[in-house]
Design goal:
The complex is a heterodimer.
Chain A lengths: L1 H8 L4 H5 L1 H12 L2 H17 L10 H20 L5 H5 L15 H14 L2 H13 L3 H8 L3 H24 L12
Chain B lengths: L6 H8 L5 H13 L1 H20 L10 H39 L6 E2 L2 E5 L8 E6 L4 H21 L4 E6 L15 H10 L3 E6 H9 L10 E4 L2 H10 L3 E4 L1
Parallel strand pairs in B: 3-4, 3-7, 4-5, 5-6
Antiparallel strand pairs in B: 1-2, 2-7
């Protein structure tokens, strides 16, 4: 059976297709739009497939594919928005109307965290999701996003600080809620 | 007191980016410094919340869910088509072989009965009539058929050989004292020199074993088995008709 599929569909690399759920999770965490995330993943998969000869080391497949998706994502932003410098956007705080004030149950926590992550500046959001969701090392993230490791660390630091800020009510839920919210 | 530990260091610790020595130092400090432990705890729970939030990202309606199964579906379709094609072409090849082997028997009909012959065309001049039943109607039919064929051949001036093969209860036709048509058989044999009567020895043996005395008419001969007789005649090019 596998020989037939090999003949019919060419050399089959299950590795690339297997990355789909991981890519989708990250793409969704970046853009918070299911269909856009789906498009990004699809584009990434087809680009990865087309460039599969460039990948020398199988072990780095995951990081390599995320790096491809990062390019797809930046291309998408460039095409969509009327700004020339994506770098500006990387540190721009997204304007979000949704402020997680009271998060009680699991579903609400999820919605709150997603809203908070969505409000992070793009650069911070990318670093945070890569580190937290897929446990990439700082050096790997630096390689994927093509930024220095120092930037990775500072973005992560700022991302977590803002997140903590945004989610304070949720995190303080079990304890007494402070009257004043820290605004950094 | 040690200098305050920066957020960056803590993050690196939480993310497993600190080397072992630094990690151990930090853990040691956390035991004494409750506030530091609290900061690490907050970071960890923040990390967990982010993980939880994206553990099950919403599926884009009707797209992601379809993408993988569709691929499998297409593969299955392809396999299905392949197997179907293989079956069809296999059948086609076999059909042509079959038709070569069996085409020689276009189900000839002799005297209103289905005839079997191994040759390309059933030979009307060498015919076996096979009787395996003592049913009066069929016995008579065999004799009628035989006379009809022989008369036809005579009219057309063909030299025809006809053999009547009997086994099982059909053998009664040729048993002296049992056959209801003994006189007719004798008459037919007189008239047609090329008419032969063959009985199956195995059947005779079986009847004998059952305590019956089997004596054939003087015109009939016994063949070792009826089936063997039929097969060897078929191989010689005879035409077989089961009455």
């Amino acid at each position: 059976m596998s020989m037939i599929s090999h003949l019919l569909f060419g050399p089959f690399r299950p590795g690339i297709e297997a990355m789909r759920p991981m890519l989708y999770r990250i793409a969704y965490a970046w853009c918070h739009d299911a269909s856009l995330a789906d498009d990004l993943v699809q584009e990434t998969l087809s680009k990865a497939w087309a460039r599969r000869a460039q990948l020398r080391d199988e072990a780095s497949l995951k990081g390599w594919m995320v790096a491809i998706m990062n390019h797809c994502w930046l291309d998408y932003l460039r095409s969509r928005r009327d700004f020339d410098d994506v770098d500006d956007l990387q540190d721009e705080l997204e304007s979000g109307t949704e402020t997680p004030e009271a998060c009680c149950d699991r579903e609400q926590v999820i919605a709150c965290v997603r809203a908070a992550v969505a409000r992070l500046p793009l650069g911070q959001r990318q670093v945070l999701t890569l580190v937290d969701l897929e446990e990439f090392g700082y050096a790997e993230v630096a390689g994927i996003l093509e930024i220095p490791v120092g930037t990775v660390m500072s973005r992560l630091s700022r991302a977590r600080a803002s997140l903590k800020c945004l989610l304070d009510p949720a995190m303080q839920q079990p304890a007494a809620r402070p009257l004043l919210r820290r605004v950094k | 007191m040690n200098p305050a530990i920066s957020d960056e260091i803590l993050h690196a610790f939480v993310d497993g980016e600190l080397d072992v020595d630094d990690s151990e130092k930090l853990i040691a400090r956390m035991r004494e410094d409750a506030e530091l432990a609290q900061r690490v705890c907050t970071l960890r729970s923040l990390q967990n919340m982010v993980r939880l939030a994206y553990a099950e990202p919403p599926v884009s309606v009707g797209r992601t869910s379809l993408a993988v199964p569709r691929r499998q579906f297409m593969q299955r379709c392809a396999f299905g088509c392949l197997i179907l094609f293989a079956g069809l072409s296999g059948g086609w090849v076999l059909r042509s072989l079959e038709s070569q082997a069996v085409a020689g028997v276009p189900a000839p009909v002799i005297g209103g009965y289905q005839a079997v012959s191994l040759t390309r065309e059933a030979d009307p001049n060498r015919v076996m009539l096979h009787l395996d039943s003592a049913e009066p109607g069929r016995m008579e039919a065999v004799l009628d058929r035989a006379e009809q064929l022989l008369d036809e051949a005579e009219r057309e001036g063909r030299g025809m050989q006809l053999e009547i093969v009997a086994n099982s209860h059909g053998i009664n036709l040729m048993r002296a004292g049992v056959s209801p048509h003994a006189a007719r058989i004798a008459r037919m044999t007189q008239r047609h020199a090329n008419l032969h009567w063959v009985a199956c020895s195995q059947t005779i043996a079986r009847f004998t074993g059952e305590g019956q005395h089997v004596e054939l008419l003087p015109t009939a001969r016994a063949a070792p088995t009826a089936i063997g007789e039929i097969v060897s005649r078929l191989q010689q090019g005879w035409t077989y008709v089961r009455v």
